[in-house]
What we know:
alpha/beta, Rossmann fold, 3-stranded antiparallel sheet, 14 helices
Amino acid sequence: MTGPPARVLYITGWMRSGSTLLGNVLNELPGVRHVGELHFLWRNGVLGAGTNSTCGCGQPLTRCPLWSEVLAAPSARTAEATARRVVDLQRSLVRTRHTRARLAEVRGERPAAPGLTELLDRSAAAYHQVAAQGGERLVMDGSKCPAEAAALLGRADLDVRVLHIVRDPRATALSYRGAKAYIDPMSPARSSGYWTAFNLASERVGRVAGDRYLRVRHEDLCARPRETVAEVLRFAGLDDESPVDGTGRILLGANHTVTGNPDRLRRGETRIRPDDRWRTALSAADIAAATVPALPLLGRYGYPAAPFGAAVRDGEPHRPAASLRPGGPR
């Protein structure tokens, strides 16, 4: 290892949890780079096997001034072979079901699985390149793969902090209900099944990470954006003022994010504000289907099993979830 460890804030949890929102907010700070979902750089950027392969700057990933350097290879054939190797290793080593094994390796209870060091070397090299190109204070990765977060905790050349973001599973169920250009549709029950599995795996990571782990709720980020962003900044080791003002407004510029929610492409004045559509857009049957698989964790995260009551945390009712909206009030 040469030079200081690159500081990485790795977001974990289930999809549609607000990582794009939070990442783009922090990206406005000097020396902070939000990279989106780095896990999919090789799959989407080189192989073109996924969706949403445009960088947040608007260029294809292979022509982006940042990612073209990260993906640089002597030839197109070499680049493709490298990408296929990375994707194969990801599938065999850092799926959610691999979280326990990766944590056992971090604790020194078993040797690293074959290929794991090779895979993590690729990720670490990418983080260091991003750190050298504008992310010297913090690289923010919203990949949301708990097993990958677990494995990265063991890297001596990285200073990894794990941010676990949770969101009401009924809200994520609504997002997954219809097909979109960048995600396949999913039933409410299936979405909440994944929600439970990913969040349980993320909690396991937190037990090993100790003070390198923080859990925040999407709803709290949206109800109190300035305060919640400040909490995340302190956890990440930054002493900046929150870039969000007291009304939830922020001016967003360009970014270099890999895949993720199309909200990452938005520019200009943006306001974080409540989005409670799932309560009326989902049928009673869909709400029930999304609630039942998540029951083991709902109370722990402050979400009511009977969704039409107010969520409670620390004895105080909470306002509904929020979304990223361009411009001012509507």
